[in-house]
Inverse folding.
């Protein structure tokens, strides 16, 4: 098997550890097989193909733990007036004007663009949540075909909900179940997850059924949790407890659960999420857009919750999402020591891999998947091990990427997306958005 040596200026193989100057990695097939100094790697693999990346920093690739790929179709959509809160955002805008109008061809165009955008911004692994109640069945396979073509590692789900009808909700659950089964047979980079929306669009029996279908398949389950004040208020008035406590009373929480948002959670709920080992995905920028609030991420991390990052289909750059995740808590808590840059990088890499169940992903130590980024190191001030996390977090962007590799395959090389007709992808998504808006 051919070995490739990627020799970088600095290797940050594990974001919880110190970067190493003058180090690189050896890749064979889809795995990292060695990490060390340039001299040691050359001596160990004398016939290897050499990639000179001595003008770049080598890091693990990003994991986007919460995406809505169809969301791009709504960017800039004309509105008579802005929604006046989280519930009007859903009921008056997002559901009727976006999700209820999605068709297979609109989903395909959005997925194509989203995959291109992810590669360009350093994401090789992602979890996507699709809600398109009029596009059932078969919507997930439409996405999957495109994701496979791009070579990304995608975990896809349909956000089943009873808001249209109980029958439509059941179609959503079955969409997930069939897709999970089909992906297991393929053994590829695309897989499935069970998903339902929230407590205020799904009955307790429906929620239990979602978890039962997942348990039968040893699959993970995703739901949105307390994105704004609406869901806590709903649960308190209907059940007398807050949402996380309600789920615990249903006996469904555990390490197989990925809860997104978790903005309006209190101390008791944080401790409960930690005790049940629930994973949380944090979307700081979209939380601001919908007026949801500031998620208590430092408090969750301190309690032991595995918190990840996602773009939510809004601003789809993990560099910008990391900046938001690192800077907002400093302002909220009036403490510049809160949320060090390295913590945000860890949330965007190995924490996301853990939440999605990928044990061999998120670092560049031997044996791990060769999912990596080459980031230009030409900052205006010295880039060294002690300042690398802050320098990369604050002053690097997608256009600073020189290489993106997923499972040993280059998806972006020398700053160019491999095998992509970007203008064609852009033209199709522009046409799809125009059709959605005309509707």
């Amino acid at each position: 098997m051919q070995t490739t040596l990627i020799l970088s200026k600095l290797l940050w193989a594990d974001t919880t550890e110190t970067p190493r100057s003058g180090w690189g990695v050896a890749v064979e097939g889809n795995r990292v097989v060695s990490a060390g100094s340039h001299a040691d790697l050359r001596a160990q693999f004398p016939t290897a193909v050499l990639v000179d990346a001595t003008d770049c920093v080598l890091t693990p690739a990003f994991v986007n733990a919460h995406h809505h790929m169809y969301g791009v179709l709504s960017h800039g959509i004309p509105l008579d007036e802005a929604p006046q809160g989280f519930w009007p955002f859903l009921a008056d805008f997002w559901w009727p004007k976006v999700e209820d109008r999605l068709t297979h061809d609109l989903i395909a165009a959005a997925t194509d663009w989203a995959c291109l955008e992810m590669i360009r911004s350093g994401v090789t692994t992602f979890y996507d949540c699709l809600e398109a109640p009029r596009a059932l069945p078969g919507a997930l396979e439409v996405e999957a075909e495109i994701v496979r073509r791009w070579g990304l590692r995608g975990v896809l789900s349909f956000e089943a909900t009873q808001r249209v009808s109980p029958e439509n909700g059941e179609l959503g659950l079955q969409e997930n179940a069939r897709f999970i089964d089909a992906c297991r047979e393929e053994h590829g980079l695309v897989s499935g997850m069970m998903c339902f929306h929230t407590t205020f669009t799904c009955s307790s029996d429906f929620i239990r059924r979602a978890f039962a279908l997942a348990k039968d398949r040893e699959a993970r389950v995703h739901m949105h949790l307390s994105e704004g004040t609406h869901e806590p208020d709903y649960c308190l008035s209907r059940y007398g407890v807050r949402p996380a406590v309600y789920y615990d009373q249903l006996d469904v929480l555990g390490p197989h659960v990925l809860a997104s948002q978790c903005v309006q959670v209190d101390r008791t709920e944080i401790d409960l999420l930690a005790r049940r080992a629930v994973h949380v995905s944090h979307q700081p920028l979209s939380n601001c857009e919908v007026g949801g609030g500031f998620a208590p991420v430092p408090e969750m991390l301190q309690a032991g919750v595995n918190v990840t990052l996602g773009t939510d289909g809004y601003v789809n750059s993990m560099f910008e999402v990391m900046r938001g995740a690192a800077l907002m808590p400093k302002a909220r808590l009036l403490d510049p020591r809160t949320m060090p840059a390295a913590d945000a990088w860890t949330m965007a890499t190995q924490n996301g891999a853990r939440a999605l169940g990928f044990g061999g992903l998120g670092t560049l130590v031997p044996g791990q998947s060769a999912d990596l980024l080459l980031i230009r190191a030409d900052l205006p001030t010295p880039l060294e091990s002690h300042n690398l996390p802050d320098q990369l977090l604050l002053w690097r962007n997608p256009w600073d990427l020189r290489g993106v590799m997923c499972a040993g395959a280059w998806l972006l090389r020398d700053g160019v997306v491999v095998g992509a007709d970007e203008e064609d992808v852009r033209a199709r998504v522009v046409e799809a958005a125009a059709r959605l808006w005309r509707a």
Remarks:
- The chain has two domains: 3-60+361-407, 62-339.
- Residues 1 and 28 are 7 Å apart (CA to CA).
- Residues 3-60+361-407 form a domain with the Urease, subunit C; domain 1 fold (CATH 2.30.40.10).
- The chain has a mean pLDDT of 96.
